[in-house]
Amino acid sequence: MPNGAIGKGPERARLPHQANIPTAGLYLVSLSKPAGARNGATGPRLTQNWEDRMRNKETLVILAAAAAAMATGAHAGKLDDVRAAGELACGVSEGVPGFSNPNSEGVWTGLDADICRAVAAATLGDANAVRFVPLASKQKVLAVSSGQVDMTSRTTTWTMKRDSAEGVDFTSVVYYDGQGFMVRADAGVTSARELDAATVCLTTGTTTELNMADFARANGLTLEPVVFEGKREAVEAYASGRCDALTTDASQLAAFRAGFADPSEHKILPEIISKEPLAPFVAHGDNQWKDIVTWVVYGLITAEELGVTQANVAEMTASSTNPNIQRLLGTSGDTGGFLGLNSTWMVDTISAVGNYGEIYDRNLTATLGLERGVNALWTDGGILYAMPVR
Amino acid sequence: MPSSKKTAAWSPGSLLSQGGVLVVVIAILYVLFSNTQENLAIRGIESGFAFLGHEAGLPIGDSLIDYSPTRSYGYAFLVGILNTLFVSVLAIVFSTLLGIVIGVARVSRNWLLAKGAAIYVETLRNLPLLLTLFFIYTVVLAALPHPRDAIALSEGVFLSKRGFYLPRPVAEDGIGLFLGASAVALVLAVMFWRWAKSYKVRTGRSVPGLRGGLAIFLALSGLAFLASGQPLTSELPVYKGFNFKGGLSIKPEFASLLIGLVLYTAAYVAENVRSGIQSVHAGQIEAANALGVSSGVVTRMVLLPQALRVTIPATTNDYASLVKNSSLAVAIGYPDMVSVGGTIIGQNGQAIEIIAMWMAVYLTINLIISLGMNMLNARVQLVER
Known about the structure:
The complex is a heterodimer. Chain A is globular. Residues about 1-75 of chain A have low confidence and may be disordered. In chain A, strand 9 (about 200-205), helix 9 (about 210-220) and strand 10 form a beta-alpha-beta unit. Chain A has 17 helices and 14 strands. By secondary structure, chain A is α/β, with parallel strands linked by helices. In chain A, the strands form five sheets. Chain A has a five-stranded mixed sheet with strand order 10-9-11-8-12. In chain A, strands 4-1-5 form a three-stranded parallel sheet. In chain A, strands 2-3 form a two-stranded antiparallel ribbon. Chain B is of the alpha+beta class. Chain B has a domain at about 75-140 and about 250-380: MetI-like fold, CATH 1.10.3720.10. Chain B is built from twelve helices and eight strands. In chain B, strand 6 (about 240) and strand 7 form a beta hairpin. In chain B, about 30% of the residues are buried. The chains are: A alpha/beta, B alpha+beta.
């Protein structure tokens, strides 16, 4: 079990939301001794909830699923766990250029990967202390809620259902995206509304399918889906001509288009059919950890607003007289302390990965030619607006 | 069964230890279950099967029954189950036929045939099925043209990257009359076949029962078709806009999955058939030959009944594997139960429920296969008198 927290230390049992994860062995022990004699949290709860559990029989007992949920222990103090492990387990995609994609040397690159590094720098002081865990679309939520990874930064849309009923909490948006369609330039199509009867390649386990079905229904179109498990298979099927169109978030379409032998043979249609706010997420129930990931992202955006860059961060720390910059970089007040981090949390982060603008330019503009668009700062006409760091 | 064994199994000591193990197992299962429930509640994760009645909203590309995204999750999952069943049943039939042919070729005295079959078996058995599927899917897609330049095999029959399009039979008035007459023809044909068999047993003279029965069926139902005013027309697929409209279609994903499963499983079935044939003592065949029995009858009456005793139990396992292997469909875009279920997990996050449903369906299918094969096996086993 990834979280061997139970029974290890009394301080672990302090939070009221902590789950009980008695292994079979512990359970037998707690039966044979008076309740509460050992496993302070475990014993009493077993007896108190006995009747409740007897009523909970409508759901099937299945060994594998139960074993999966055995790992679903809520963590008391994810920050402590991460520090104890000395590395951040960060869920990423299986390969989306510009967001999270291993380069030719096997190093993960992209905006999402850099967010993982930023969190590692802020919490551990080392941007390289990240274990990247590639997750398929349908695994991503479960991997976080079960504690398999500490956080996920994986082009995941922030939706109400996921945030409220699937055991995860979203932090803050790192990219405002929307779903679009890519077609072959020679297909003679100028609008997604002309796609009636078209075959569309897409991937499973995402909001993409729902959006496409909604769009087709709203516009009276019949679209034939071919749904793949992996993104690469979907793109290859589109490239081989199996489908007339490929649909996913517009930023990813641009990334895949840039990867084709001749990008000019493909074009992205103007319609954006959905809102896709992409945000990192953490397991539900650990507010401190959620705050850390949220404020690292806000810190990166604030750094761009204030003009703090990877190149000038040392100089700014030493000599800036701007109180906002001083607060961000920890030379005045203790913003890091609010989160349980060092006062140099943002200095470590910015020195390692740069500010939000630098991360964006390096991963999306320089390689894929994606403009900032709505992802520009609010002061530049975009909607990127970080809460004040103070 | 000897009575000593019986008493040993139910002696007080063994009863106690067996009961103890049972209690421990049940206790472990209960702890797993209650913990799951509690952890889900703490995490605020929804549980239960209420979602099955909610609107699915997901599109499915290949469905045997009428489906639209306004249907419920439960109905969408049913579409997936039917797709899994459809591809599994067809693959079982075709892999059995192909497996028998290759298995017989394996023991053939024709050197080329035997070696060719050996190479086939060794290649297919030693490649991961997933790779074979990717290979077939890629080859199928690469080989076929864009629907604009579809290969027209005959009127209304097209082959392209979008699939294999065929005319769809459409029932007209009088179809009931025709179907009724065909049923009567079928009954008559079977009656003739059974009479032929009993006539042979009584007199020793053989009448071509099977061929005669088939001729009766075809002639009578053909006449009925004409008499009822040819109540069956066809709807031809027509290329329009992006794709063909109308007609029946076989999608490349389905075809690739079926071909992959058949080729792969046939290699295993072939080995079962080979071992079955080789298990029959050579003396049996030689004795039959010495009696002057024709080689076809030797195969049917001497070789096959004995070979099946070895072949059937092993093949039961391979059928079960085939059904489970069909879940690889998700890799090449065929909407089987696992693919549809995966989408549902992505939309509502209730992984435990969906995984339980997957397990229940695969278990049910395989237990039914097992039951059927065991009944077949019981019929071919030696009956000791």
